Amino acid sequence: MPTLTRPHPQEAHEDSPARALRVLVVEDDPAVLAATVDMLEVLGHWAAGVKSAEVARDRFIDGAFDVLLTDIGLPALSGIDLVEILQARRKLRVIFATGRPRPSQPMPGTLWLQKPFGLDELRDALQGIERGGT
Question: What are the φ/ψ torsions at residue 42 (nearest 5 degrees)?
């Protein structure tokens, strides 16, 4: 399955972070995937995008990513299932991006980003996950 990777941010946002994060984005909607990768770059981060949890599983294990930003409603393997598989291998920071309501007891160390979201909400979620999530 093709991936969307942009190794260098094209334009830094005025609130660029002190340290750029390496973010793996998992989203089956190509327009949302591209927009999310673009926003991450504007915020000064490096992003790679994939369209399925199966590809994400392999990329995350093989790659050196700081954050996993995933949709929940993915075909075949859900974003929640993906996170459970990856957390069994190593500790990871996760942002769930979804249009669904936030659960009453979210997974520890994760943040929920309500779709649709913009640059400010994405920046806030990344800052929150760096502070420890939840």
Answer: -60, -35
Dump pLDDT digits (tens) for 71-109: 999 999 999 999 999 988 888 899 999 988 877 767 877
Q: What count of other Cβ atoms lies within 10 Å of the Cβ of residue 58?
A: 12
Residue 17 lies in a domain: no
Select from 56, 73, 53 the least CA-distant residue to 65: 56
* CATH number, domain containing residue 68: 3.40.50.2300
> Which domain does 45 fall in, by range?
30-132
Question: Average pLDDT, stretch 35-59?
Answer: 96
Number of domains in the chain: 1
